[in-house]
Design a protein that fits this description.
The protein is α/β, with parallel strands linked by helices. It has ten helices and eight strands. It has an eight-stranded mixed sheet, sandwiched between helices.
Length: 257
């Protein structure tokens, strides 16, 4: 994928360790010209057990082309860890961005978190359950917004032995559902859904949107008629972008906040 992505238009700062005790690292991408000071921290998916930050340069390129700085962190995954450790890693990554992104031209007051699939689940917990960022001396309201692409937010009962291993026990399974742990106030949320997604059903986003509205939060639910689960991240890549509606939706949301 990355071989098809332009290498110009942005500057990349790679392999920055954000968590000394684990060696977790992140990559920072900065627009080469006329950057906005808005920052997007992008968490990739992979069923909480796979994925590498270096494989998501295409997502960073899509957003740096819109003028935003982008940070792509790694986080520990199953079987090395189980829930909630990967969310705690993500909170540490966001805290690093808050402390250091000004060094790269970004505004720590204009940080957005975004993610696809399992990454969207992680970002939802960061902005809806304050305990994760609280451990880093932050609040969800320190963030400007959340963008979730094809995220699982309401996925009980668990359907496989692997998921039961990643989320062990009834209590943790309950706490792993963003719909169950939402505490206001929260920053604005954008939920992007492919109507042909058979992996993470659209009802996950619909259920979360309803809960956010009930608590008085701001949420935008947007459907993409012909997109499946992988399309909801693949359409960020320049060769597969089509009419660009997915990238445009994200940019419009960021610019409104």
């Amino acid at each position: 994928m990355n071989a098809l992505i332009p290498s110009d238009g942005y500057r990349a700062y790679l392999d920055i360790v954000y968590q000394q005790n684990t060696g977790n690292a992140l990559d920072v991408y900065v627009p080469a010209q006329k950057p906005s000071r808005a920052v997007v921290v992008f968490f990739y998916g992979g069923s909480w057990e796979s994925g590498r930050r270096e494989d998501y340069r295409f997502a960073a390129e899509a957003l740096t082309a819109q003028g935003y700085s982008v940070v792509v962190p790694d986080y520990r995954k199953y079987p090395e860890v189980v829930f909630p450790t990967f969310v705690e890693d993500a909170a540490a990554a966001v805290a690093w961005v808050h402390l250091h992104i000004a060094e790269y031209g970004g505004d720590p007051g204009r940080i957005f978190v975004a993610g696809h699939s399992a990454g969207a689940h992680i970002t939802a917990l960061l902005v809806l359950d304050p305990k994760y960022l609280k451990t880093q001396g932050m609040s969800p309201m320190d963030l400007r917004g959340m963008i979730g692409l094809a995220g699982p937010y309401d996925f009980l009962p668990l359907q496989t032995a692997r998921l039961n291993a990643i989320f062990p026990g009834d209590r943790l399974q309950f706490l792993a559902q963003p719909v169950n742990v939402l505490q206001a106030p929260n920053p604005p949320v954008q939920l992007l859904v492919g109507l042909k997604d058979k992996t993470v059903l659209p009802r996950n986003s619909e259920s979360l949107a309803q809960r956010i509205k009930k608590t008085g939060g701001r949420v935008e639910l947007r459907y993409f008629m012909d997109y499946g689960h992988i399309d909801m991240v693949l359409r960020l890549a320049r060769p597969f972008r089509g009419d660009g509606s997915l990238v445009q939706a994200i940019g419009d949301f960021i610019d409104r906040q």
